[in-house]
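hey all, quick one before standup. I had two proteins in the batch that finished overnight and I want to keep them in one place so we stop losing track of which output belongs to which input. First protein below, input sequence then structure tokens straight from the run.
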Amino acid sequence: MLTHAEMVALAGSARLMMMADGEISEGELDIVAGFAARLGLTEPQWGAIWEEAIRTLPDDAAVTAAVGALTRPVARELAYELLYELATDGSIVDPEWDILEWLDEHWRYEDMVRRKKS
């Protein structure tokens, strides 16, 4: 299960992913709505988290910082899995791949830095 902050980061990054190609499809809306059940939330709970992400993560830099700061492996894996599912609705475009690749590279780098400090 994700913490509240991790869910807000996921919601913000999902919004960023949806806007990456300049269009929000019905399929993307359905997938994001389905995140509620996948996260063990009701639709109103997920809606409140989504709204919080809009308020607290207003731009790409804030979203990037929030999702990049995920440290728990289980949170990273679930976030990546859900974002990948969202990105592959229809045909995946370069900006969507860029987000997924950035997450993978950023988290690997963060892990490497953390190991060196230990």
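OK second protein, same deal, sequence then tokens:
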Amino acid sequence: MNAPLSVVLAGGGSAGHIEPALAFGDAVRRLRPDTRVTALGTERGLDRTLIPARGYPLELIPPVPLPRKLTPELLRLPAKVLDSVRRTREILRRTEADVVVGFGGYVALPAYLAARGRVPIVVHEANARSGLANRVGARFAQRVAAAVPGSGLPRAELVGIPLRRQISTLDRGVLRAQARAHFGLPAEGPVLLVFGGSQGARSLNTVIAQAATALLGAGIAILHARGAGHEVPELSSLDTGRYVGLPYLERMDLAYAAADAVLCRCGAMTVAEVASVGLPAMYVPLPHGNGEQALNAAPVVRAGGGVLVADAELTAARVVEEFTALLTDPARLGAMSAAARGSGHAGADEALARLVFEVVRR
């Protein structure tokens, strides 16, 4: 452990895989500044945009499309798998990797197969239900970490999700005035933040269009990320001083600081960030998939930091009723904020880094 370390990150594809990987990489660099951190990625997704922008060298490998389950379909992809594994082994040799830390997705499976028996492996699962790549990797990993209980991975240790320090150390009170000025929101009064991930969410856009007039009438301003390419004509005539609609939120830290409550989906990263900054939320899971989004939000909801509403049950009347009651009751708002913050795992980035250092020592 006296020599500089070489850590390879395998978490490309989507922001849900990339962001915790880079937050972990940031923690490694903070704790051991001489560490060389290399990120694996593919031509797909956000790899080539997010990873270099954060100052990490990116090594591209061929993507391995994954079926949702471990089935014979995976065995019918030997050429693609072998090519990707071969390329990954070359990178592990060239970087003299001491450990591979995987976060799931297209990049993780070939990384696990390439490292098996050659380089120690640590697996991190952010979702309440583990994906195929991490289920395979966990079988021969030295350590397995998870964000929430019940991921289904053997020997999983609960550490939470690594978050950017910009989010995990956010003081909303200190930044409130700056954040509201940044978005052109009123300096006083409650603000509801609405977003559905980087691509937006049609049902959230529809319901906020129906609820906006009543919310604004109740004195609640709205900061709404509608998603790139999503226009909501019904919202175009609203008071731009109290309704702010954007295709994408470049500064999520300021969006959180400006807000008093949130209406959002419940991807693993969204739940972790919203809870970490202490914002009460109405979580609306995607209406398709394997149900993992509802499970992601379950610990926060059980703690009293949010409510869970099925997509089919989301109505303008319910949004107006819930948020008008919450945002005009300071005592309840404070209690839910404390419950949300208390349900998270502060310091997950450094906890995972220390776990990885232990693996290297051994």
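Flagging for whoever picks this up: The mean pLDDT is 91. The chain has two domains: 6-161+346-361, 169-342.
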